[in-house]
Amino acid sequence: MTALSVSTSSAAALRADALVVGVAKGPKGIVPTPGSEAVNEAFEGKLTEVLSTLGATGAEGEAVKVPSAAGLKAPLVLAVGLGEAAEGDYDPETLRRAAGVAARTLAGVKKVALALPAESAEAVEAVALGGLLGSYSYGTYKADAGKEPVGELVVLAARKGSKDAKAAVERATAIGEEMNRARDLVNAAPNDLNPKSFAAIAQAAAKEHGLKVEVLDEKALTKGGFGGLLGVGGGSVNPPRLVKVAYTHPKAKATVALVGKGITYDSGGISLKPAGHNETMKCDMAGAAAVFAAVVAAKRLGLVVNVTAWLALAENMPSGSATRPGDVLKMYGGKTVEVLNTDAEGRLVLADAIVRAGEENPDVIVDVATLTGAMVLALGDRTFGVMANDDELREELHTLAGEVGEQSWPMPLPADLRKGFTESTIADLANMGNRMGGGLVAGLFLKEFVAEGIDWAHLDIAGPAFHEGAPYGYTPKGGTASAVRTLVRFAEQKANGKA
Ligand code: BES
Ligand code: MN
Ligand code: ZN
User: Fold this and answer.
1) 425-435 pLDDT, tens per residue?
2) Strand, coil or helix: 457
3) pTM of structure
């Protein structure tokens, strides 16, 4: 794993294998950004001249290498583009992405110093987090996994706020390592990661960090009447699990419940998905991975708030014991659901977990799920949808997501769409409604299971949870850890008596 540290020594004096500086697009061409002064001096003020000869423009995502100049300890300089030159501080997301580009470009290098504009603690945290996330690689199954990630990242910070800078790097380490854990879970092959092995991983990690864990196995689920989890998991040789991971702080004034969709593989079940739609369906547990990462991060940050994560784990497979389209399930809490399409399984496992979470009377429930293809059609693959039974909560989550660099958009829960799934002829509800607005229909279905008086929000991360395109910024191919930063930020706001 990449080690992260902070230093206030000068970029010139620090011993490293590569030194990273920022460049931007000024009104008259490429300009160096704060942090690069010592490097520019070593180049006798001609750093940008040299770089533009090599084709650099300062555009976001750009990375240009130059051999070092006399006076610098590092033999290699890498210039990363920050886009338009900023008047004041650079936006944290710009810094995260630039640091991510640097870490990806320098894979295989042992020690990298980042001399990006990092004057405030916020900027230091952004550079550190981007660097750590950009260093991520998943090599579990490869004989030759290619270049090793960067071994050590040193964030160079302004001397004045060095104490804050140290705390900022510690925060980035906790959040980044937990995000990378979530990515590992998503990237694991579904023949390795099933409900039982996921529960075991959660148990081990929770033990390591001193969190309380409870696992309900298929026997306990049967005894408890968790018809949603049992119905969805019934077709698989790998039975379902409901995992509760609790972090409590003695001085906490609020409790946040996080519920994650944990379908370790979604074949669609008897309503089988066609080829072309199931190759990436190992990512259907990304919600559970996100809420798990968030609760561990909350603990590592010592937030003064209680956070309980509920992982609704099942494998959706077709077989002789699978739920049939037409079956009626009795959900936890007693509501009955006619299953019209076994591929609308996420809402069934989530319903059980939301009811169970509600029994503990949290102040708020936030569920996270790769729930609908409709949300991907609506928002694309980098933006998650935010729905809620409370307007303020929805806006709050959308705003917080933006602050931590996650793209989201508020979506409505139009009451008229409720009709589509509440008129089953034989059960209380059906698991399918109108095809149009399918992402909202799924949200409305979940809302049925939220206890009176509890604020609830739903994040549909079906788009951003798994990245299939070329890597960019700090985002690799595969699992992204979508929603983790938003959840941590939300828990933090709750800890501060806000939100
Ligand atoms: N896991 C899928 C949703 C999904 C789609 C996640 C694309 C990630 C990328 C979900 O279980 C599903 O199959 N939803 C159906 C619901 C429909 C049958 C009502 C869908 O979106 O087509
Ligand atoms: Mn499905
Ligand atoms: Zn699914």
Assistant:
1) 899 999 999 99
2) strand
3) 0.98
Radius of gyration of the chain measured on its C-alpha atoms: 24
Q: Are 130 and 97 in contact (CB under 8 A)?
A: yes
- Tokens at 493, concatenated: 């706001």
Position 424, amino acid: S
Q: Could you list the active site residues?
A: 273, 347
Show the beta-strand stretches assigned E in 371-430.
384-388, 408-410, 429-430
**Which of 390, 394, 380 has its CA nearest to residue 462?**
380
271, 342, 371, 434, best to mutate for ligand 1 pocket (most atoms within 8 Å of CB) = 371
CATH assignment of the domain containing 145: 3.40.220.10
For residue 441, the ligand 1 atom closest to its alpha carbon is 19
**Residue 481 near residue 290 (C-beta atoms within 8 A):** yes
Verify that 12 and 50 share a domain, yes or no.
Answer: yes
pLDDT confidence tier of residue 140, bands split at 50, 70 and 90: confident
pLDDT over 80 at 160, yes or no: no
Q: Around 208, how many Cα atoms within 13 Å sit in the side-chain half-sphere? A: 10
- Show the domain range for 127: 3-157
pLDDT of residue 139: 84
- 176 belongs to a structural domain: no
Answer yes or no: is pLDDT of 110 > 90. Answer: yes
Measure the CA–CA gap between 150 and 145, rounded to whole angstroms.
14
Structure tokens at 29: 């061409």
Q: What distance in angstroms lies between residue 350's CA and the mean position of ligand 3's atoms?
A: 11
Closest CA to 129 of 170, 78, 77, 83: 170
CATH code of residue 453: 3.40.630.10
Chain-centre distance for alpha carbon 299 = 17
Give 290 Cα–ligand 1 centroid separation in angstroms.
18
Q: Which atom of ligand 1 is nearest to the CA of 271?
A: 18
Domains: count for the chain:
2
Q: State in Å: Cα 194 to ligand 2 middle.
A: 16
Burial of 85 (0-12, 13-18, 19+ CB in 10 A): middle
Q: Strand 328-330 and strand 384-388: pairing?
A: unpaired
Task: Look at ligand 1, atom 8, and give the residue with the nearest C-alpha.
Answer: 462
- Tokens 């029994």 belong to 359
DSSP string, 459-472: EE-TTTTEE-S--B
The CA distance from 102 to 79, in Å, is 8
173 in a structural domain: no
- The CB of 345 under 6 Å from ligand 1? The reply is yes
Integer angstrom CA distances of residue 176 from 82, 126, 170, 484: 21, 10, 10, 10
| Residue 112 counted as domain residue | yes
Asked if 150 and 270 sit in the same domain, the reply is: no
The gap from C-alpha 177 to its chain's centroid, in whole angstroms, comes to: 11
* Residues 128, 17 within the same domain: yes
375 Cβ below 6 A of ligand 1: no
Centroid of ligand 3 to alpha carbon of 364 (angstroms):
24
Burial bucket for residue 436 (CB in 10 Å: 0-12, 13-18, 19+)? exposed
